Amino acid sequence: MKTLSSSAPRLLFFIIALCAPAANSAAYAAAKPDVLVVLCDQWSPRYLSWDNPQVRTPHLDAIAREGLIFDACYVTSPICMPSRTSLVTGLYPHNAGHSIWGNLSGWHVEPDAAPMFCDIRAAGYTTAQIGKLHWFSGQTWRGEFEKIDDYHRALGLDYVVDVSGPPSAATGNDAYSRYLRERGVLKQVADDLRERYLKWEFEPRASVVSPDDYHDTFVTDQAVAFVDKQPADKPLCLVVSLHSPHPPLDAPGEYATMYDPQSLKLPANVPEAFVREMHEIEPAEMRRVLANYLGKISLCDAQIGKLAAALKKRGTWDNTLFVFTADHGEMMGAHGAMTKGRFYEESVRVPLVMRWPGRVETGRTAALAQMMDVYPTIVEAIGGELSPARFAVSQLPVASGKRKAVRSTVISEISKGPHQQLMVRDARYKWWIQDDEEYLFDLQADPWEQHNLAGKPEQAATLHKLRNDALTQLRRDQTNLAAGSKSKIQRLREEEAAKKK
Fold it and tell me: Which of 133, 321, 352, 461 could lock onto 73 through a cystine, CB 3.0 to 4.6 A?
């Protein structure tokens, strides 16, 4: 994989004129696309309606039918902060200036290491993120900035509403906590969430607030209000970051009862019974958990519908690059596990859908992608310049049908305890090492990852190849802080030559 030092605009905008609708064709052709990214939290790729008909997401389905579904998109780390930081930096967790392996407290991404929004803003865009940010924790940014708004502006963001998630304390002063306080229900919400976290965050029980007052609805309403206020003559790039379907499993109102647990079918790799956090989970309980999780997914879908409607009202929906993805997945009982932080498909693979009529193909692709590739894809699509030394790769050549793939492998990494854990996947196989144990799965023959082939003598060549692939990619994807350096003698000679001109 090549290191991206720059990305000259390769999408010629006169082509847009040829593909544009007849109505208002001249104005449409001249306009850069709006960009809308919907980033969900903990959405397992096993629960997408095009693969799992139990899932009800009519708005997302309609968008996906008009766009391209990436079936092999992986996060750089199957946990929130490293994954989200990779998105805004275009770097892997192991890169200098990133080096975050978990959900750390007292940490923030440095603005000069996170140029995503700066690159987009430089292309003439109004930039915004509304909802969960999670590239910082605490107020360590105060060492460099007087106000949080100054920090956001340094990251390239013109507008921010940070809603980190549902409040578990009645002392919160974020926008959503203030909203709940005005409604007179903040303490009730905070007490309910605290009880869930202390007991078991996967307990399926309806939220104490209605869907209209739920945090994802609040975030979406803020995003719609932002879109409505934007001038028609300037393109926008808006990232809407929803907290769902992340636990606690508190789908609100009708979403808590939308799915009948008894009618749900569990995946093949969910055991008959297992214990997690001293909680025994049998099939009937697992189906109740799944029903609430799917309710939260359907709630997200309703928000996606509202966002699409806002861009239709703005008149730019058919000239909008729409991206739907997630920061990581959710095990949801697979292999007897809950939550994230694992290299199984349920946790490390994520949904990725792109829609841009006339520019992005329709259908599905098996091309390998990393979720952080969303960043350079946007920059290329809008005719911007990518900051140097990024290891994310634009997927626009794949999305536009010009190339079958831009990656031959993808990697993911996480640190639990003293050792780094590393995963690599090629077109067919996935290998990872966890402490001293190795795993190898043939994803074509064994998509549910139930047969570890790492100890099979006949798989020695495959195991060797993937180990080597991992080392090769890690070698290529190291941040080189000496890139472009020149020796003292070379500098002197160049200075002397310049004087003679």
Answer: 352
Global pTM value: 0.90
Question: Would you call the peptide bond into 457 cis, given omega within 30 degrees of 0 as the criterion?
Answer: no
Model confidence band, residue 481 (pLDDT cutoffs 50, 70, 90): low
pLDDT score for 16: 29
Same fold, 32-325 and 410-501: no
Phi, psi of 370 (to 5 degrees): -110, 145
Distance (Å, whole) CA 49 – CA 64? 10
Contact 313, 224 (CB under 8 A): no
The dihedrals phi and psi of 42, each to the nearest 5 degrees, come to 75, 40
Name, in order, each residue with C-beta under 8 angstroms of 118's C-beta and a sequence gap of 6 or more.
155, 156, 387
Secondary structure (H, E, C), 297-309:
HHHHHHHHHHHHH
Q: Kindly report the CATH number that applies to the domain delimited by 410-501.
A: 3.30.1120.10
Q: Is the pLDDT of residue 97 over 80?
A: no
Q: Are 453 and 459 in contact (CB under 8 A)?
A: yes
Q: Locate 13 and state its tokens.
A: 């905008």
Q: Tell me what pLDDT residue 119 has.
A: 98
How many Å apart are CA 32 and CA 382, to the nearest integer? Answer: 6
pLDDT classification of 51: cutoffs 50, 70, 90: very high
Is residue 294 within 8 Å of 54, Cβ to Cβ? yes
* All structural domains of the chain with their residue ranges: 32-325, 410-501
Q: List the one residue out of 149, 145, 138 whose CA is nearest residue 107.
A: 138
Q: Cα(428)–Cα(355) distance, rounded to whole angstroms? A: 26
Class of domain 32-325: alpha beta
Give me the mean pLDDT over the 117-127 stretch. Answer: 98
